[in-house]
Amino acid sequence: MIDRRTFIFGAAGGLILGAAAKRAGAALRPVETRSLPATGMAIPVIGLGSWITFNVGDSPDLLRQSTEVIRAFVEDGGGMIDSSPMYGSAQATIGHALGQLGRPANVFHTDKVWTSSVSGGAAQIKESARHWGVARFDLLQIHNLRAWEGHLETLMAMKEAGEVRYVGITTSHGRRHGSLERVMREHPIDFVQLTYNPVDRAAEDRLLPLAQERGIGVIVNRPFQGGRLADRLSRHALPPLAQETGAASWAQLILQHIVSHPAITVVIPATTQVDHVRENKAAGRLALLDPGMRRRIADHIRAL
Amino acid sequence: MSEWWTYGLSDLLMFSPRAYWALFEQENAALWPLPLIAVGLGCLLVVLAARADRLAAPMTFGLIAIAWGSVGWSFVGQRYPTINWAASYMAPIFAVQAVIAFAFLRRAVARPPHHTAGADRILGIGLIAYATLIHPLWSVLFGRPLGSAEIVGIAPDPTAIATLGAGLAFLSGSARWLFFAIPLLWLLVSAVTLFTMGEAQGWVPAIAAVLAVIGALRERDPEKLADFSDKITRHDR
Lengths: 304, 237
Fold this sequence. Notes:
Mean pLDDT of chain B: 89
Structural class of chain B: mainly alpha
Helix content of chain A: 40-55%
Largest sheet of chain A: 7 strands, parallel
Number of strands of chain A: 9
Low-confidence stretches of chain B: 224-237
Distance between the termini of chain A: 44 Å
Low-confidence stretches of chain A: 1-27
Radius of gyration of chain B: 19 Å
Oligomer: heterodimer
Strand content of chain B: under 5%
Largest interface: A-B, 23 and 22 residues
CATH superfamily of chain A: NADP-dependent oxidoreductase domain
Shape of chain B: globular
């Protein structure tokens, strides 16, 4: 659990980043951070998802590989790691890795409540915290708006009691945006999590402007459409406009496009590979794009 | 999950091929040397199906019952749920198949079944032999460690395939379809899972299931066969 935020993502993050940079033989500028609207706390724009990638069961080899992925993430500034009780053993994998890494202070512990039983929500959160090996979460979200009215009451009460710092609600695949908008308008949530990338841009119409207006942090899931977008684009050469943005790969171009939207707080790509973590983190060091360039990228990808 | 029907299968798949195949490696290592014994018992199933003597059917159904019970309890009930929480709901189905096989054991002891004859019996023996001796090799052929081999009586797919083979070798009519229902269901689930993961091995359970169904559909009623045989014998006189 982390409380000294400025230290964590400032001095400590800088020290860890310095070590990573030294290994890489280059001076790295820190990954872009965004201030959480609710408190002003800064968090790196590149986080880490866990859907599928960290659901590795009890396999010692895969647990070791997952630990290395999280080690690379933490060494490169850390930030939000997101999971859910729905993700199989992902929570336990993260907990295992964080334990192996000595409970790094620069992790923003993010999880969800995912049960149709409102009364069972608190017990599920307790079980999730046990898997993670934390006393409390930084952010708890209601997964896919499931039984959201009841869970929101529970989470707000937990926040009031200091048992969680932030409260949010999630959707994915562009679903239930109407319901999400209603929650954003009517309830004092801190975060909303949704799908957004150069292809899936439905959130741009109402949700992202609303998040900015209401001071709600936005977490982006499925930046690569669960790998499908990345696979599709890998068949095409990186366009010349990437030279203008500085992106060295399709993944970086996509992430750069996403985090350049001013409403976005953090994007959470999931990966099983250390190289991909570093590549993703490096995208957070690229210059932010203006709306014109973002439009060109989206148009180019859509035309492929 | 709301609006679940609008999700594609790949959206619902919650694990990767590497995590899935690692399960078999872990299971074999945890149960060692049971996988080796299981291969031996699979070979015994082949011999029993080929001999088709009085003890063959009861012993086959007994081994099949034990296999479904152990696979359901260990792999499907304990190992698979570490990456797929839905698997724990499938474990009771394996227990049901174990009970069905046990019921056929009791029936075979009380009233030895007509052993099937012809192509479907040969297909049945072939499926058992495939499940025991060939199926484990897919792990190596697809570039995975030998330790992750799927063994009959340890892993669900070869167990289901061997069960279909036993059904073709020893059962006929509605009894055969009763015996087939759960293995066919499992192989369908397995094929869909593997295809959704992008694994070409999905063709294996799919083809095994289709072969078994074809074998069962072209079955001839043993009593009609007996009548036919009598007619031929009379004609010869």
